[in-house]
Structures are given as structure tokens and as C-alpha cells.
Amino acid sequence: xxxxxxxxxxxxTLSKAEKTKAYIIxxxxxxxxxxxxxxxxxxxxxxxxxLTKGSVYGNFENKDELAAAAYHYNxxxxxxxxxxxxxxxxxxxxxxxxxxxxxxxxxxxxxxxGGCPILNAAVEADDHLGYLKKPVQESIRVFVRDIxxxxxxxxxxxxxRRNIDPTEYAYVIISILEGAVMMLKTMNNQQxxxxxxxxxxxxxxxEIKK
Length: 210
Hints:
By secondary structure, this protein is mainly α. The protein has helices at 16-35, 42-49, 53-57, 63-86, 92-112, 117-127, 133-156, 166-187, 190-208. Helix 1 crosses helix 2 and helix 5 (92-112) packs antiparallel against helix 9. The chain is elongated.
């Protein structure tokens, strides 16, 4: 699938056509996240890539296919950056706190890039872009699995309570994160984000951790 090329360590082995697809995705992805998937025009894409209409549509069947690929790119770029923070720590507690630490340290960059790609795409998918529904659902499942893996590690290492449901808490954490970013962008108030991140940390310390 073309939208995974950007994380491929063997990118130099891609064919010329595959490299072109990857280039279009990389240049178009920020536009879709900032302007919206419906609001990003072919002209916007052509300007960002410096390619002609024929070159763009010679690599993608239509705008919907490119938009879906761009969404995957945006989500996995975010996931990769969160994972880099999580991997810095050995203990499960610090790994889980690393997620909120990432948002505390990178909220300005997230806003500059248009906000959370999951939330942005989810709103459009629910309103009028049905083709984005499954990609968004799958990315949420991936995010849930990432958090569940950390909680299960903590349970195995006896850092976390054994009687909690990792999946339930993963959805709680993600829901608060998405709401935090939405409120930050809507109200232009960093303190709202900080308060919500503090709430997640409190859940980790008082409900998840032993």
C-alpha cells in the first residue's frame, strides 16, 4: 500500500513510480489535514507538488484515493512521533505518561499542522466523506492496541492493577486526548489542554497504577 512507503527503511529500492506516489502523498498530506479532505482542491495539490493534473491522476485513480493515502500518512506520522517518546522509557508507567508528555511538548506543532489527523478525518468521515470511515476506524484500533500493549506490560511487570480492562482505559485515554486537542484549537486555550492531560495522568496514577 503506497501510504506506508514513507516509513519504509528501504525507500531507495522503490521504483520511480512508487517514489512519485510517495512524494505526492508526503506533499499533499499536510494540506488535507489543514484544509480538510473535502476542502483541499486539485489546484492545491498541484501547487504543493509542482506536478500537473495528469501527473497526479496518473498515480492515483481519483482524489479520494489520494486523500485516504494522505490520511494514513498523517496518522502514522503522528503515531511514529508518539512512539519515539514512549520508547525512551523502560517502565510501563513512564511509557504511558510519555503519551501525555508528547502532547505537552508538541501541542504547538500539532496545531500548526492542522490538529489531530484522527479527529479531523473522523469529523469529515461522519459528516459526508464515507470513504474515510474505515481508515479512521482502523487507525483508532491501532492506537488502542498500542496503549493496550503498554498497560498489559505494566500488568505483567506488576506496575498496574490486574483487575482493570486495558481496552477500556485505552479508549478513555484516546477520547480525552482527542477532546483536549479539539478544545485547544477551538478555544485557543492551552490551559484546557493541560488540564485534560493532567486528568489522564491522574487516571494513570490513581486508577491504573498500583
